[in-house]
Amino acid sequence: MSKPPEDFLSVLNARSQDIFRKIVERYLDTGSPVGSRDLSRMLQTGLSPASVRNVMADLEDLGLIAAPHTSAGRAPTQEGLRFFVDAMLEVGAVNETERSQIAKSIQGQRQGQVEDVLTEASQLLSGLSQGAGVVIATKADMVLRHLEFVRLDATRAMAILVGEDGQVENRIMDTPPGLTASALTQAGNYLAHHVVGRTIAEARKILAEQRAEQRAELDELTQKLVDAGIATLSQESATSTPTVIVRGRANLINDTMASDELLRMRQLFDELESKDGLLELLGDAEKAQGVRIFIGSENKLFSLSGSSVILSPYKDANDKVVGVLGVIGPTRLNYARIVPVVDYTAHVITAMMARKRNNS
Fold it and tell me: Which of 158, 162, 140 has the alpha carbon at shortest distance from 150?
């Protein structure tokens, strides 16, 4: 089990921290391990290569660095990267050029469907990070524009739900014996009056609150049909599984990859498309208070590929987490630059979703 950052900080003096930082920064910049001679030249303290080697040996004993393959140099381990990210990473603000680019790209999609906005965000993050941009979204609760009942036979009717975004769902419901055409129409009109302009969750809540008024206003047969209609609103949507949008796959796959690396990366994309593990990831996002960073095997969905993933939740107009967006890349991602970009993009998406709801 990894030690918390403060445990490492308590045993590393300023010299050790400086050398460790240089090793990590060189790795993040080049992907290459660094040796004691090069480190000695990089340091401002004039330490000899022999002294640097002693410090590196201590860092290796702590599990923060290791020698990849047969290299004489050292690179950070997964635990070392986690320590660096948690305790030593200096995250700056998104520069004005990137803020403008993000806002302009997202706002350019404001007249489109929500999925258009999320696709643009994924493409944008891919371009800014040179990794793969990913968005994992729950099925948004439909805002109803229209509801009606259509009789199918003597015992069944179809509830037709039409959302503000044009989405249509048909749900089959049982009807009470002796149902008349006028009762079907009255029940449909009653429900439509109370649910249009609201999400399905809001509609269920207000109809439950008005139960006493329903009894006074509706005859027994129509009340039974209204109850059946409310039950259909409680059904899970057929499209309630998460939506996954990935752009920039080619940034993570290249001709120099070993065959096993290539296979692991393709398996990652297959798992994303099959949606395995996504609900758990979304559950983690609901608990998060901002950007989450998963390195290597820390999240089982991405552990096979050995990738790092930077994710931030975004919310709907009701301040509910409805998805995550971020960047998938190698463990030597430029965390200091990408973390604020992901965070800012999530805030822009959240603000846009609130505006789309208020303007609908």
Answer: 158
- The DSSP letter of residue 74 is B
Q: Which pair of tokens denotes residue 112?
A: 């489109």
Chain-centre distance of CA 294, in angstroms?
A: 12
Residue with tokens 């986690």: 82
The pLDDT score that the predictor gives to residue 205 is 81
Convert the pLDDT of each residue in 10-51 to its tens digit.
889 999 999 999 999 999 998 889 999 999 998 877 789 999
Measured distance CA(173)–CA(159) in Å, rounded: 7
Can you tell me the mean pLDDT for 67-75?
81
Closest by alpha carbon to 282, among 274, 296, 292, 273? 292
Q: What is the mean pLDDT of residues 305-326?
A: 86
What's residue 199's pLDDT?
Answer: 81
Residues ≥6 apart with Cβ < 8 Å to 97: none
pLDDT at 110: 64
Q: What whole-number distance in Å separates Cα of residue 209 and Cα of residue 230?
A: 12
Q: What is the distance between the alpha carbons of residues 193 and 182, in angstroms, rounded to a whole number?
A: 16
In this structure, which amino acid lies at residue 128?
Answer: L
Q: Is residue 245 within 8 Å of 115, Cβ to Cβ? A: yes
Q: Which of 117-131, 149-163, 207-221 has the lowest mean pLDDT?
A: 207-221
Which residues, in sequence order, are bridge partners of residue 173? 157
3-state secondary structure 215-262: HHHCCHHHHHHHHHHHHHHCCCCCCCCCEEEEECHHHHCCCCCCHHHH
Q: By the 8 A CB rule, do 74 and 33 touch?
A: yes
One-character DSSP codes across 76-113: E-HHHHHHIIIII----PPPHHHHHHHHHHHHTTTTS-
Pairing of strands 156-163, 243-247: unpaired
